[in-house]
Design a protein that fits this description.
The chain has 752 residues and is an alpha/beta fold. The protein is built from 22 helices and 26 strands. Helix content is 36%, strand content 16%.
Length: 752
């Protein structure tokens, strides 16, 4: 059957319907032969396009349409007419899609180059999306960040890292809103252009949210070197322009250029600067997916930092809605993204980040997320998802923030918080009160390298659903595929993250597919329980612990002894006279150390080997001079850090002190009454103990401590539940006689 014939006007109307070329507040769009390019803003150009889509923001791609009646076969004459119109539009727009269409035949040109495989006319968003398929050049972002940081630090003399970040972000806002920043500008003209663009871009939004004025105020407070050399100004403008191009060309493909930029910038902070930690971009993406967040959700981050979670959510939701130019995208940005940030300068950074992406800024609030006011503010919002990485330190009220969120967002809200692994374990009573109203559903332990110095997990809650003994799904994503590059941080240099992310999204959704999965009872644990293999003690372990106690009994400084011994063995330096007996040859009566039939014994509790007490705090100011051993968080000198005269809360002799904070697991036999600090657990034996038995058990305890760390302290409560493996008799009781004889057989025991 022959195709129906269409006139040129009919083809034009058909194209308008299929492409959805309707005028919007963000773009000029339409079809017809009466409107000239001159009327569309291309001064002096009288040619008339058949159809057009021209965004107000010229960094977005434009679309130009050339139509013919269906009786005209598309040929060189028609193509040249379209190419001429593409060149006209390219005088203002970096990217242009050209469509040549006769009702049946279609040719698509991306910046003048034919795109293969395009045979059917589709919605304009499909063609505009042709420019969103490139991956951003992350290595370029890293090098630009380094260059910008150095320029601002050493040439502009901006000493504060966050001021450098804010200054850069404000320059990017200025670029985003059309400020002319070109090489050769004077310092005064350059900074004035940024400030004036900030003020004009915020003018409407200030009427809705006066706190946005903070961004302008913070920018004005940044101290600069007004005598900065022109070369430095030119370098900064060039670097910022390149960053801006990356944001505008690739952001909506799903990668938050600013999150990458901020995280990279944050590596240059000094120890004295703020403890703000930005969430890595790949983790914000992962959390968006495992919470099943969609364009229908309203997202809150009540400790939003630079806005990484909000921007990631905005990016993904708008992609799902069909792109930034849709009405649904505008509604998402204006009504479905909410953030709170307490730090004034970081709030300014968040405002700038949202401004760079031109949306969501009016829903940022500068307030304390722990406050009653913040609670009421949250209650007033239709939140359905919470994505957060609150500050970890207690001084910033980490759990206060989490609690305020849980008790003020609507029932049914899914909340995901990044927290230190054992943050909830340490506040079990408080968390159990939460669980009367809210359910902890999942714990996903993250790779150890994500945040320097602390291991973390994602804790997912469902608000308004009590726990009621329901078990918690837990798993451990041990690897994210990123690798550390010297002086450049962690990067996905092998492109492994995408596959790893999808694998773990499936595991979390299906709650199956990984041998790391554990279902835990909330009455027993509130963290992922990693299987850590405790090494069985060796002869060398017992020798080391025996020598340490022997040196202590002989009043020999352990560190000096080992330094002298090392020099003696390596360089032939003479031994100190008092050390010589330790190197005398002694005939050993070696006893085999067969651990095959050792058994587990509880350390504390009703059935345990010891009664456990916690030491007492004693400030330096309250310490009196004396001869009483003061045992603290030390790995040396039998744990003794001072001698005091305070004798009102002494621990009895014949006990074992175990450090649970600081030098975790360092265990020492104490043969005199002593004062134990509150960093120490005191193990009082329920059996007849000797120095030799104590040294044996202390060695085993030290090996067990591999399960614990600074953020997972071996507290009294955990120690009472812990077990250690010891020699056992046939009847299953500890073989203390073997322990005694074994330590006696070691050469250093003669110095006890």
């Amino acid at each position: 059957m022959a195709n129906a014939a269409y006139t040129e006007d009919q083809v034009r109307d058909l194209a308008r319907t299929k492409l959805h070329l309707e005028e919007t507040e963000s773009a000029q769009a339409g079809v017809g032969q009466l409107t000239s390019f001159n009327q569309l803003g291309f001064r002096g150009v009288k040619d008339r396009p058949d159809g057009w889509y021209l965004p107000n923001e010229t960094h977005y791609p434009a679309l130009i349409l050339e139509v013919k009646g269906s009786n005209i076969k598309l040929g060189e004459k028609e193509r040249e007419e379209l190419q001429k119109n593409i060149r006209i539009v390219q005088t203002r727009y970096k990217h242009v899609v050209g469509l040549l269409y006769n009702g049946y035949e279609l040719e698509v040109y991306k910046d003048g180059e034919l795109v293969e495989g395009e045979n059917e006319l589709m919605d304009k968003e499909h063609y505009l999306g042709l420019f969103s398929t490139n991956r951003i050049n992350k290595m370029l972002i890293y090098s630009l960040t380094h260059s910008i940081n150095d320029t601002l630090h050493f040439d502009f003399l901006i000493k504060n890292l966050y001021h450098r970040m804010i200054f850069t972000a404000c320059a990017l806002v200025a670029k985003r809103y059309g400020a002319v920043l070109v090489k050769g500008m004077s310092f005064r003209l350059f900074t004035t252009a940024i400030r004036e663009t900030l003020e004009s871009s915020l003018s409407e939004d200030l009427a809705k949210n006066q706190k946005l004025q903070i961004l302008i105020d913070v920018f004005s407070e940044i101290k600069l070197n007004t005598q900065c050399k022109q070369d430095a100004i030119n370098q900064f403008i060039e670097d910022v322009s390149k960053i801006s191009d990356n944001i505008n060309s690739d952001f909506w493909n799903g990668e938050d250029v600013m999150a990458i930029f901020f995280n990279e910038f944050n590596r240059y902070k000094a120890k004295s600067e703020s403890g703000q930690v930005f969430t890595p971009d790949h983790i914000t993406s992962f959390m968006y997916q495992i919470t099943d967040t969609t364009k229908q959700d309203t997202v809150l981050d009540a400790a939003c930092g630079s806005g990484a979670f909000l921007v990631k959510a905005m990016c993904n939701m708008i992609k799902e809605a069909g792109g930034v130019r849709t009405q649904e995208a505008r509604e998402i940005a204006q009504t479905q993204l909410y953030g709170i940030e307490f730090d004034r300068e970081i709030f300014a950074l968040a405002c700038a980040n949202m401004l760079i992406h031109k949306d969501g800024k009016t829903n940022l609030e500068h307030m304390d997320s722990r406050s009653v006011d913040a609670g009421w503010w949250m209650r007033d919002k239709p939140i359905t998802r919470v994505l957060m990485n609150p500050p970890f330190e207690n001084k910033y009220g980490c759990l206060d923030i989490v609690e305020n969120v849980l008790f003020n967002v609507p029932a049914g809200t899914v909340c995901a918080f990044i927290l230190p692994d054992n943050k909830l374990e340490k506040a079990r009573g408080r968390v159990r009160r939460w669980m009367q109203f809210h359910r902890l559903t999942k714990i996903i332990k993250l790779p150890k390298e994500i945040f320097s110095g602390v291991t973390t997990s994602i804790f997912m809650f469902t608000v308004g659903t009590p726990q009621r003994k329901q078990e918690i799904f837990t798993c451990y994503m041990a690897e994210d595929g990123l690798e550390t590059i010297k002086n450049q941080g962690r990067h996905d240099i092998r492109g492994r993250w995408e596959a790893i992310e999808q694998q773990w999204v499936d595991i979390v959704r299906k709650q199956a597919g990984s041998d790391t999965i554990k279902w835990i009872s909330p009455d027993e644990h509130l963290s992922y329980q990693e299987d850590i293999e405790v090494p069985m003690p060796t002869r060398a372990d017992f020798m080391k612990r025996t020598l340490a106690y022997a040196l202590f009994k002989q009043e020999i400084e352990e560190q000096e002894f080992f330094e002298n011994a090392k020099d003696h063995m390596l360089y032939g330096t003479p031994l100190a006279e008092e050390y010589e007996p330790f190197f005398e040859s002694v005939k050993e009566n070696e006893i085999p150390l067969n651990t095959e039939h050792w058994k587990s014994f509880r350390i504390g509790g009703k059935e345990g080997l010891f009664t456990i007490a916690k030491g007492s705090r004693l400030t330096k100011a309250d310490q009196r001079d004396g001869r009483i051993n003061y045992v603290g968080a030390s790995a040396f000198n039998n744990g003794i850090t001072n001698h005091i005269g305070n004798d009102d809360q002494l621990c009895q002799a014949g006990t074992i002190s175990v450090c649970y904070n600081g030098s975790i697991g360092e265990a020492f036999y104490q043969d005199e009454p002593y004062w134990a600090t509150d960093d120490v657990n005191v193990l009082m034996p329920k059996f007849q103990i000797t120095p030799h038995i104590a040294i044996f058990i202390a060695t085993v305890i030290k090996n067990e401590s591999v399960k614990y760390a600074f953020n997972n302290k071996w507290t009294k409560e955990l120690m009472e539940q812990s077990e250690i493996v010891l020699p056992a008799k046939a009847d299953g009781t500890p073989d203390f006689e073997f322990m005694e004889h074994y330590i006696q057989s070691l050469p250093y025991s003669r110095f006890f």
